[in-house]
């Protein structure tokens, strides 16, 4: 059986565990050590344990892993409190300034408070796909999203027509007249 590794925050660049009396290594060494252990792209799903959203978070993680499998480096479930439900992705981006240098970019894909509730699985898959593999086809998920978008456009068009029928005269485009 293998021994568990110490958390990244408690590990020095040399691989020895840090004690409270030792000083922390320079931040570049800590960043280097942390980056060696992180598999990108990394998705973190923070969920509120008080609200009992663990099963929902696990379901989203399962769906993302099933869809993207080895295209994802890791999916983490992060228990927190306070009604939080966020999905964040970290991915590597090449910098234009120097050859071979890679930086890590963090993007908040979904925030329950900001975006109003929980994401639909197909919407979350689309958000992830747009970052890690923009040319990838999600099959039935893409088709369902396109149908929903068309339906929203039709509803929006009908609402605008109803507003114009209620009293405002229809305005012609100045270029068309």
UniProtKB/TrEMBL annotation:
Record flagged with keyword Metal-binding: no
Record's compositionally biased regions (Low complexity): 11-28
SUPFAM superfamilies, alphabetized: Thioredoxin-like
Pfam families: Rdx
Keywords of the record: Redox-active center
Superkingdom of source: Eukaryota
Disordered, as annotated region: 1-30, 139-177
Record InterPro entries: Selenoprotein_Rdx-typ, Thioredoxin-like_sf
Protein name as catalogued: Selenoprotein W-like protein
Native source organism of the sequence: Penicillium subrubescens
């Amino acid at each position: 059986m293998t021994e568990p590794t110490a958390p990244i925050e408690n590990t020095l660049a040399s691989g020895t565990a840090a004690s409270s009396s030792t000083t922390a290594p320079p931040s570049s060494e800590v960043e280097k050590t942390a980056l060696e252990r992180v598999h990108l792209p990394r998705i973190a799903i923070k969920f509120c344990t008080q609200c009992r959203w663990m099963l929902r978070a696990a379901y989203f993680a399962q769906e993302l892993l099933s869809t993207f499998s080895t295209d994802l480096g890791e999916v983490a479930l992060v228990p927190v409190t306070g009604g939080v439900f966020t999905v964040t992705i970290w991915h590597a981006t090449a910098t234009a300034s120097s050859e071979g240098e890679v930086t890590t970019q963090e993007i908040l894909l979904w925030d329950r408070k900001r975006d109003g509730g929980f994401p639909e699985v197909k919407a979350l898959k689309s958000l992830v796909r747009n970052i890690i593999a923009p040319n990838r086809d999600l099959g039935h998920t893409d088709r369902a999203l396109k149908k929903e978008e068309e339906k929203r456009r039709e509803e929006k068009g009908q609402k605008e027509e109803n507003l114009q029928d209620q009293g405002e005269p229809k305005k012609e485009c100045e270029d068309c007249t």
